Amino acid sequence: MIYHITDNLSKAIPLADIPLVEYAALYHDLEQRLQDERYHVAHYFARLEEGQLRFYLILLDDKQHNILLSSHALDYYDEVTLPSLTALHPALHPFEREIAELFSVKFGSMPWLKPLRFSADRLNRNSTIDNYPFYHIEGESLHQVNVGPIHAGIIEPGAFRFICNGESVLHLEIALGYQHRGLEREFSNDSNRLRQTLLAENIAGDSAVSHASAFALAIEKLTDFTPSEALIIERHIAQELERMAMHIADTGALCMDVGYQLGQVACEALRTMTINTTQAWCGNRFGKGLIRPMGTNKPLNSAKIDMIRQNVAEIARRYEEVRQDIKTSPTLLARFEQCGNVGRAEMLRIGGVGMAARASNAPRDIRLSHPYGLFGKELQHESVIKRQGDVMARLMVRCREVLQSAEYIQQLLNLYSTATATQQPDYEAKLTPEALSLSLTEGWRGEICHVAITDKQGNIATYKVKDPSLHNWLALALAVRSEGISDFPICNKSFNLSYCGHDL
Question: DSSP secondary-structure letter at 292?
Fold first, then answer.
């Protein structure tokens, strides 16, 4: 048997139940299996175990809703060169690049063996951000445009190197890794559960609810705790408010970049109204403090339910007017349509996820493929799919998802019973020893994966995080090819990817 099969609702898996197979067997299976678009890799990482380097693979079957787990191992000092899976399936490039960076594992025929993050605990200390090997093209008509790493908007750092022929972009390479938080390592360095929760909230500040929810689910799977329906509903509402707020903000940012001031200010007002709704509920505009393992300190009550219901209805009504204005404006359509195209085949090859993938007719959506909470039960989710793969398609997916989230919130509020008590958080619950727990949630950008592995004492020994930006940065690089360099801002805003979600 090559795989242990589970799903997104199951408890943690004992490490002894995860098959340890020969790499050749796993390689040949993935060589064939990943040609079918129903499969994609949620995570692939390595960790030291008793003098061996053990590699863990988490493979998703989007059709059967299954999660397939497997592993292989090397003696740590082996000089073996592993055949590269990236050479066959480009979507695996960030995983193999990270493994090579951290442990100096050699992957033969790897087409992009460049550092991924420049993590502080990388094995090769000679590899630094200052000597990153950017791709070069030579030609008399070509020139380079360097942007960053200090961002013009004074946000997070990242280096963008354009190779252009006149105004047309031939190639964009995006180099990240300027932030060295060592976030994954901190989960195992500190066993204080509350501090771990705060770490999860700060993986990516604009996805605090989504990452905290993934952490809470991963922890709860390592205990005997089953969340109550009331607690599940509260988490869903918080995540859909987060989705609304960020999609509305990005709508306004796109309007700003093409000089449509009315759309910009309208969206700024609506985004403020959305995050103020979250603040009125829990005391923080980004939902920090709201999601906690095994309980909540901020349960809903009748007054908050009425407030959320009224605000969400008003936000949806006014946002629909903005959406209609955008769809009927020839000036906006001329800028957004047929700009920044990423085709379905390209998106699937690079492992694109979330709303960006769905805008390219690639139906990657954890709420449908690997449902959690009430998805697939009380919430019968339908993915918003567009086929054009351009800036306009990504914007329209956002617009439809805002309205869809508003509908879900109203449904969830109708299901919620204030008479149903929700528990206080439990930061002391014992975790199952020598087990692997994984959770998948659909953040507003896309697929979020958290993996926790415990030691013999039940403490977290390894914690791995995958933010959707890990895959989608490459989609942005593809989107700007053959576009005018002046179109980069709207292409960039149409993805709105996370620097810190990548760097960790």
Answer: B
DSSP structure string for 3-39: -EEE-TTS--EEGGGS-B--HHHHHHHHHHHTTSTTE
If asked whether residues 257 and 345 sit together in one domain, one would say yes
Global pTM reads 0.95
Residue 219 near residue 212, CB atoms below 8 Å: no
Say if residue 107 is exposed, middle or buried (CB neighbours under 10 Å; 0-12, 13-18, 19+): buried
> In 10 A of CB 324, how many CB atoms?
11
Contact 135, 99 (CB under 8 A): no
Domain assignment of residue 129, yes or no: no
Residue finishing a domain among 68, 86, 116: 116
N-terminal to C-terminal alpha carbon distance within the chain: 34
User: Averaged over 385-389, what is the pLDDT?
Assistant: 96
**Is 95 in the same domain as 206?**
no
DSSP 207: G
Domain of 16, CATH number, reads: 3.30.460.80
Q: Do 240 and 349 share a domain, yes or no? A: yes
Domain annotation covers residue 150: no
Under the phi-then-psi rule, with left for phi > 0, alpha for psi from -120 to 50, and beta for the rest, what region is 447?
beta
Q: DSSP class of residue 431?
A: P
Sequence-ordered alpha helix ranges (H) in 379-487? 391-415, 469-479
User: How do residues 108-149 score in pLDDT, each as one tens digit?
Assistant: 898 888 888 887 777 777 777 788 888 888 888 899 888 878
Residue pair 350/470 in contact (Cβ under 8 Å)? The answer is no
| Nearest-angstrom CA–CA distance, 58 and 169 | 36
- Residue 180, C-beta contacts closer than 8 angstroms, at least 6 positions apart: 118, 119, 120, 503
Instruction: Reply yes or no: is the peptide bond before residue 371 cis, omega within 30 of 0.
Output: no
pLDDT at 153 over 80: no
Residues spanned by the domain of 77:
4-116
